[in-house]
Amino acid sequence: RRNSSNVGIRCAAGRSSFDIDWRGRLYACSNIKSIYSDPSEIGFLAAWKDVNEKARRYVLPIECDECKDYNRCIKCAATHQDAPCGHANPVICERTQRMIAEGLR
């Protein structure tokens, strides 16, 4: 196994960066709508701590850990959010395999 845990976003989302939408909600990433907090209700620091903790506990696809194409895939947590929690989005996996077959990865 590459990683002993499939928990925790591995990019900057919610770890060292964030987005704020037009309503003032603080998101780990503008593409991950499930990780957010509202600074207007609890204050900025508390909202950031909440989002950071959620990013650290975010469940990643377990299939990615054993995938033969791991090193050639874009490892973006947002691309798998339409799949059941903790599982890879087969559409993303198929797209990656097609890109590899065409020599684009």
Short structural summary:
The protein is α+β, with helices and mostly antiparallel strands and 105 residues long.
Q: SSE string, helix = H, strand = E?
A: EEEHHHH
Helix segment count? 4
Counted beta strands = 3
Helix content: 25-40%
- Mean model confidence by pLDDT: 91
Order the strands across the largest sheet as they lie in space: 1-2-3
What kind of oligomer do you see?
single chain
Helix vs. strand class: alpha+beta
Description:
There is one protein chain. Helices cover about 35% and strands about 10% of the residues. It has four helices and three strands; from the N terminus they run E-E-E-H-H-H-H. The chain has a three-stranded antiparallel sheet, with helices on one face. The protein is elongated. The two termini are about 20 Å apart.
What keyword list fits this structure?
three-stranded antiparallel sheet; 105 residues; alpha+beta; 4 helices
